[in-house]
Amino acid sequence: MLMGSHHAAGFQSRPEGGADLPDYAFPRPDTFYGVSKVVMEALGSLYHDRFGMNVTVIRLGTCNEAPADTRGLATWISADDLARLVEAGLAATGYHVVWGVSDSPRRWWSLEEAKSIGYVSRDSSEPFAAALIEEQGSPTCRSRCTTARAASSR
After folding, report:
1. 3-state secondary structure of 51
2. How far apart are CA 34 and CA 29, in angstroms?
3. pLDDT digits over 3-36, tens only?
4. Which of 33, 47, 95, 119 is catalytic?
């Protein structure tokens, strides 16, 4: 199990029409920290291919008690969902890259690979949405923004 980061693909744009960013999105790090996470993903792939180790990389979103801002409505994973994802990842065979995010209607990232290894999200950021939007305004970043641009616009 490797704890990656969404910063490994932070300069990826969402697909046209607002579809989820795929699980195996090509690395496009948005920080030097993101570069280090890309290197970690590559080492995990090497250890899987060369030594047959089972490796799951979680590209973690935002894990807090609640989303802190409207951007967090798209990137949030509850602590309980993260525990469920880690359990699924530890039991998985092969090499997997999954997004660490709860199944929220505003999420940007795919959950298909996570579901394929047995992850079932039970939480959503939606119960926090009304209060955050009332306080901070509606999110302006839509289908073509990158996660890095969203972070810098706050």
Report:
1. helix
2. 5
3. 999 999 999 988 888 899 999 899 999 999 999 9
4. 33
| Cβ atoms < 10 Å from Cβ of 142 | 9
Instruction: Give the position of tokens 């469920």.
Output: 84
pTM over 0.85: yes
DSSP β-bridge partners for residue 97: 57
| CB-CB contact of 109 with 13 (8 Å) | no
Print the SS3 string covering the chain: CEEEEHHHHCCCECCHHHCCECCCCCCCCCCHHHHHHHHHHHHHHHHHHHHCCCEEEEEECECCCCCCCCCHHHHECCHHHHHHHHHHHHHCCCEEEEEECCCCCCCCECCHHHHHCCCCCCCCCHHHHHHHHHHHCCCCCCCCCEHHHHHHCC
> What Rg value do the Cα atoms of the chain yield, rounded?
15
Q: Is 33 labeled as catalytic in the residue annotation?
A: yes
Q: What confidence tens digit (pLDDT) does each residue in 38-78 have?
A: 999 999 999 999 999 999 999 999 999 999 999 999 999 99
